Amino acid sequence: MPKITILTAFLLIAGVMVSSCGTIFAYTMSSSNYKMELDSANVGGGQSASSLYNQQSTLGEVGTGFLSTSLSRLYAGFQQNYQTATTSSCNNNGICDSPDETINNCSSDCGCNNNLACETSRGEDILNCNFDCGNKATIYSPEGATLLIEKIEIKNISFDSALVSWQTSDLGVCKFVWGTTTDYFGGTVGEEDFWINHTTLISNLYSGSFYHFKVICRGTNNQWAQSKDYKFSTLSIPQEKVVPNVENLSYESKDRGVNLTWKNPTEGEFKEIQIRKSTKFYPQNSNEGELVYQGVDNFFLDQKIDLEQDYYYTVFTVDEAGDYSSGVILRAKLNKAGEKVQPQPPVSEPTKPAPPEVEKLTWNDFEFWQGSKRIEFTAGKLLFKEGLPIKIAIAYKKVPEVLKTILVSLKNDNEYFSFLLKINQEKTHYIATIVPPAVGLYPFDIYVLDYQNQSLKKIQGFMEIGSQRVFLSLLDFGQYFSFPVVGLIVLVILFLIILILRRRLKNKNKK
Questions:
Q1: Are the beta carbons of 317 and 265 closer than 8 angstroms?
Q2: 302 - beta bridge partners?
Q3: In terms of CATH, what superfamily is 356-466?
Q4: Rounded to an integer, what distance in angstroms lies between the CA atom of residue 371 and that of residue 498?
Q5: Within 10 A of 167 (CB to CB), how many other CB atoms are there?
Q6: Residues 6+ apart with CB under 8 A from 198
Q7: Rounded distance, CA 163 to CA 153, Å?
Q8: CA 206, CA 209: separation in Å to the nearest integer?
Q9: C-beta pairs of 283-289 under 8 Å, 24+ apart in sequence
């Protein structure tokens, strides 16, 4: 019996497959360096090519074909019509000679090679090769071409912005990168034209925070330069005394009057409560509206009212020094039967377009602090812990002079709890301090009003109050300790658990 070789078996299998599948061998294999195409069942019939390799035959005549590259050429048999392979334009000299060389046909000369050196001769820059040309890389310029970044100055530092200026030794186009760390993830400001004197304003910064920045520039001769790391600190909100507001202000109908109840503050030098009332709008200070209550109780029954009339109350806390809180507000109304009308929002919805300087206000223009931690508005909500006072502020300069009132309001079931923001003594911020409600998720809105008490802007979101946990989670540990410390704590806990279990098992075996 004849011996069947591996090649014979392969050809037999191939024949069966061809007879059953027809044109199963009509396919193409390729990569960036190699391409093979067979469009016939005959092994010799096909053509393959790449930038370095070209093979062609006459579809079935095994002895007819040729092999050609830019380095060698082999002829076999006869081929009447053929074309030579395209010679490669890559000269492997380490310089990307555009447009003949590209990253597709000459990766040895062109494109980002991630070697931590920013090689402009390869066409690398911070846009297409951040790993090499990013803020931590060494930037190389063409030999003999220099560009210097000089006279960097930080000016006009405020609570939320800073002005930075610098000069370049020649015309340059620059990019300014900044952030709270040396990763510079805070933002990027890029120029479009070449200048010698450069200035950029960075805004929407956090008050009382440190920032890092660098400047990266490119000259007209493709020379590059970058500055060292610089840092500055924004101004802090003045740590003036803030008088806490009352909590849980609400009302109900009683004896054909409005009965207000609240919880007095437990922090600070509490002296008394003052309630001012108006039929026009919420009294903003101790000089507006009618003083209807002054004392230390946690309730007040107002029977001097007319049915079907809106009444606006502001409850102020006064401390021993005579300073006032920002004020908690409430809108009350009784129907003809003397019953409480369904609670309404603190003000009406905006009915006309706001001025551009008001319309552009967002959650990011406001600051929310709980203790020493700034709370960010993310995923449509603010996340606070229960029991700890919350400070809300917005820089005075961000609010146009046309405005009179800024108030915040949260809704719990059918009740609205609303607070005024008060201008501090230095006139740098509108500020209010509130105590968060019970654990839960609450609609939370900010209203901006004009001098006619008309709503100009409503900013909507949610406030979520989380519980204070007796034991810190690992996530909480991560805020106070480094990850190695957290890992060590976990190992110690596991060791103690194992030790306790072993002792219990040992004692059980003794019994």
A1: yes
A2: 258
A3: Immunoglobulins (2.60.40.10)
A4: 38
A5: 15
A6: 165, 166, 167, 168, 172, 174, 191, 215, 217
A7: 8
A8: 6
A9: 283/312, 283/314, 283/327, 284/314, 284/327, 284/404, 284/405, 284/420, 285/324, 286/316, 286/324, 289/314
Residue 457 is encoded by which pair of tokens?
């802007």
The two structure tokens encoding residue 478 = 């991560």
Partners of residue 225 on adjacent β-strands: 217
Q: What is the C-alpha to C-alpha distance for residues 344 and 74, in angstroms, rounded to an integer?
A: 92
Angle subtended at Cα 444 by Cα 238 and Cα 472, rounded to the nearest 5 degrees: 70
H/E segment holding residue 58: strand 54-58
Pairing between β-strand 35-38 and β-strand 149-155 as defined by DSSP bridges: unpaired
Residue 280: CB partners within 8 Å, gap ≥ 6? Answer: 312, 453
Rounded-to-10 torsion of CA 90, 96, 101, 106 = 50
Q: What is the CATH number of domain 247-332?
A: 2.60.40.10
pLDDT digits (tens, 9 = 90+) for 74-100: 333 333 333 333 345 788 877 887 667
pTM of the entire predicted model: 0.55
Q: Tokens 């911070």 identify what position?
A: 126
**Euclidean distance between the first and the last CA atom of the chain, given in angstroms as a whole number:** 79
CATH of 141-233, one of 3.30.43.10, 3.30.420.40, 2.60.40.10, 2.60.120.620: 2.60.40.10
What's the mean pLDDT in 240-245? 80
81 Cβ partners below 8 Å, 6+ apart? Answer: none
One-letter amino acid of 428: T
At residue 320, the 3 state secondary structure works out as: coil
**At which residue do the structure tokens 């809704």 appear?**
411
Least reliable range by pLDDT among 235-244, 286-295, 412-421: 235-244
In the numeric block, the tokens 């103690």 are attached to 496
CB within 8 Å of 236: residues ≥ 6 apart:
159, 207, 208
- Pair of tokens at residue 180: 């709270």
> What is Dmax (Cα atoms) for the chain?
121
Contact 231, 422 (CB under 8 A): no
The CATH 2.60.40.10 domain(s) of the chain lie at 141-233, 247-332, 356-466
Q: How many CA atoms lie within 13 A of 449 on its CB side?
A: 20
The pLDDT of residue 352:
83
User: How many residues would you count in the chain?
Assistant: 511
Helical segments of 22-155, H only: 130-133
